[in-house]
Specification:
Helices cover 27% and strands 22% of the residues.
Length: 426
Amino acid sequence: MFEHILAIFVWCCALAATAATAEETEKSILETIKSTPELSSLAARLDEFPSFTSLLEREQITLLAPDNAALSATAENITTESFWQYHVLDGSFPTFPTNWTRYLPSMLQVDGSTEFVVAQTSLLSGTTTFWSGAQRTSYTTGNVTSCSNGVIHVIQRALALPRNFSSTYAQSVLIKNPSPFSTTNTSGAVVEDVNVNVVKNGSIEIKSIDSLSGITVFLPITYAFQAIGSVASTWTLEELRRIMSYHVVDEVLTPDAKGNLPRGEYSTLETSKQVVISSVGDVQFVNSARIVGKYNWVFEGGTIYTIFGVLNPDNTTVAPNASDSGVAFAGASFTTDVSFPITSTSSTNSSSSSSGGLSIGAKAAIGVGAVVFAIIATLLGFWIFHRGCSRQRASIKYEDGGYQLSDMSMSQKNLTSHPGTIGRGV
């Protein structure tokens, strides 16, 4: 009899424990936030953002929750709904890849385009890294918390809202001048916009990349422009805009489940031409240019991938080759002195250009002309000076009443000038 009572007691205890466990795992994301001490700062702000709170009640979501220290240290404007919406992911993501990055859609949309967060988990530490605007990195602390309507990852640094293309480019350490995609030219002058051609209703409009959404930019590294510097420096403004437009795909491309960009042909803003994404072994290419760097660069209008080469809309047949530089411009040679026409449509900037907006040949001609002018001016000065001295000496009489004889012609030594070395302008 006693054994039966003991068995019933044990069964009841197990049932109670199971019920308690079930009740604990069935907490919603909102309930979990309110009961977690390290998220008390977040919990205190829930009533201030009804739209954000409403998102947390949806099913199958992921919250990247900044802990108390992260919220107190962030320089971001945390008083906007968009800041909090960006921390909610559309889908339940308890784990992330260890060998590649994964692009995660957030609940934040700008001009109808979804803003992404990028994630990857370290195989050694198990810590997940999240990349957000301006390539800011945030790391998970502790384990993932499962909730009835999704999961929570606590992070030690708040995400940064994605910014426009120009701001994102300016804050990157990966790519600098010379590049026509930069908002400052090679002389350091600020350019108002980085413009490309956009076809609308059958006509071409000039648009700033900052004003576009739902796009992918294939951004050549600095060396890629230098590798074709002799050709790039001769581009007209129209040619440059066309080439830049060819680097912009009119959709957001994100890696697949294996971390690769999906292969195929994609339309660009240079509407008559497409780019081709392919793979050679583990290396991916767009046309003949290698895609380099980590896949983790997002901006307000979409995604950015760096490439080792400049795409040529008039030469799309160059085969991808992992062993070469992917130069698609015939006859191009390397130079560090690359100048581009300014692509801004402002009245001030459209009439000028980077580094004076002149090609290497034009700048060289100006340099030679300046040196020749200096030589002529110097010789003319010597001649005027000599005539003045001769006349002055001719007017001076010797003490014996005679006149000073006029000098003989100038010696070869005095005729030798020392002009500076004539070189190509830089």
